[in-house]
Amino acid sequence: MSVIADALGVSAATVSNALSGKGRVSPELIERVRAKAEELGYVPSVTARALRTGRSGVIGLVLPNISNPLFPQIAQAIENAAADAGYGVLIADSSGDNAKQTLAIQRLIERQVDGIVIVPRLGTRIAELACPVAVIDSPSTPNNTVSADHWQGGQLVAEHLVDLGHRDFVLIGANPLSNVQNDRIGGMKSRIPKDGRVDVIWIERNEMVLGAGCPLGLKEKVENGFTAFAASSDLHALRALTELQRAGIRVPNEASVVGFDDLVWSSVVSPSITTVRQDAVAIADIAIGALLATIEREPSPEASNIAVAQCNRVPMALVPRQTTARLATADASASDNSSFANSSSSPPERNAP
Question: SUPFAM superfamilies, from UniProt (predicted)?
Fold first, then answer.
């Protein structure tokens, strides 16, 4: 910084103010300082800034399983939102393990991050930490900062299938300890008509008995009259779709399948999967905004470090594709009603002989 100051004949404090956008520095001098800094290849010292401001300019992000295609999408949205606010991001993966999640949080705090965004492992609750924290899980989760409205997303799924004439539903989740999956399935149930039939499959419960990757018994479900298969993620929807196809059941002619999250491959498998999309960009913007507000407020022993957002849920959107279609019996019923209406109407007049 002193080299830039000497080259321009100004003080180091003036150069600092020009580069940081603080103080009273004319636009012309700011432009000259930045041009000289670029010419000399000047890179601001993060350590010096941290010593001066008491902040690292870095936030942490803890994900439950980075191998799940959903979470890299969330990570990218968080990183973009943080970068727009002038922050870098350190990412940690808990690999779905409680102890690893706790260790990841501790290590990020040790690295003096200014705050942490946590997408918690299922069944865990994030309490007060030694630094500000934003939680992205589900509106029903205690201390949740913001998330997709998973209950409303489940309602969209059921309404779509009901509109297509379905009345017999198999709802598929992975683990009943997940608030997200419970909310999605709960939302579906809330929109199924009273004359509907519902069966819920929890994959991990089945696999504890029958082994990993075991069949879910969907062929038998179809034989028993079930026609709509709604999963709590696109991964489970793809598993259901594959099992139905291998059993010779045509999708969507004989059975409809819906997933969640609109993963990157959901639109390119055949048939492409009807799903529900969450607005990761909006969620990230709200989470980062709430976290930074918590970071920047005046310290207070009474204040919570859990970031609170004015909007804590973001609506989801249905993405209809090729795995859902009108139930054949509904079409037949409509056709029968149409035929009955035609037969009961007055016959056309005959021409006089």
Answer: lambda repressor-like DNA-binding domains (SSF47413), Periplasmic binding protein-like I (SSF53822)
